[in-house]
Hints:
The chain is of the alpha+beta class. It has a domain of about 50 residues. Helix content is about 35%, strand content about 15%. The protein is built from three helices and three strands. It has a three-stranded antiparallel beta sheet. The mean pLDDT is about 85.
Amino acid sequence: MSRPKPSKIDFYPDEYVTERTLEDRTQISTRHWQRLRQSGDGPQYVVVGRRCIRYRWGAVMEFMEARACGSGSATPDRGDEVS
């Protein structure tokens, strides 16, 4: 039995997505995700082939939630504080 296709709102946390899909879902450019990956600051990813990168959707959501700011949220600690 196959899983139902997720709607635009209902994504599966264990789903692996391409950079293009990531860009479509988050409205953050592919190039920005590439920069985060190259600097080691982005979410976990999987190298499937020489030029084939996939992100687990749940890892992307955890990454973004850890950086949430605003009412009721702590500012993410980036080590920029002055002692």
